Amino acid sequence: MQALHDATAAAMPVQSFVADARHFRHQVAPVRHAAVERLGLWIDQLAALLLLLLLSPVMAVVALLIWRADGAPILFGHYRVGQHGRLFRCLKFRSMYRNSEQMLKDLLAQDPAARAEWERDHKLQNDPRITPIGHFLRRTSLDELPQLFNVLRGEMSLVGPRPITVAELPRYGRVRWHYLSVRPGMTGLWQVSGRNDVSYDERVELDRRYVESDSLRMRLSILWRTVDVVLHGSGAR
Q: How would you label 108-119 residue by residue, b for 16+ Cβ within 10 Å and e otherwise?
């Protein structure tokens, strides 16, 4: 409950962007009929359902491995900013130790270099919070499979901008309008353009490019390239 309260309180500035995000969507892309938008959502949801049925044995094995290595919980849900500023719990298989938040606080308080890296990228290259099985899950992107449930719930798309936290939104500057105008995706230009090998500013630029150039052809291209990236583990940490 406290996490929800904190996230909701922090989201207050996000809600002030909602009307602008809806207006901006019509400026960066042709106006789409509501039925077309709804059809795109249904296609995403149908694809997510099929993928869940297909990958359920893999997900069951991953859940068992996490439970045997570090116990429950199996899933981790962190609040992300969705379309029009709506907060949602972005699901992943847990890849960090259960006391990861305290570990991060202690690390940032004791290590100036790690603190500077976190403030710059919102990530750590050598993150001590990640479990041994977590390294494998992240390298293979298996940790992100539970996001198929987010797609089923209409909170995410298969392809879209990288889902970000409330704290990250101000760093997007004017590109925040791009981000807020669409549903974040399980994969996107960032994931197929180097992932953790690109800087934070480059990630923001990739999200802007995606929203302004969004098309069926681009989405299919990103999905195809995602398969190659996952198989080769490109840019994964």
A: beeeeebeebbe
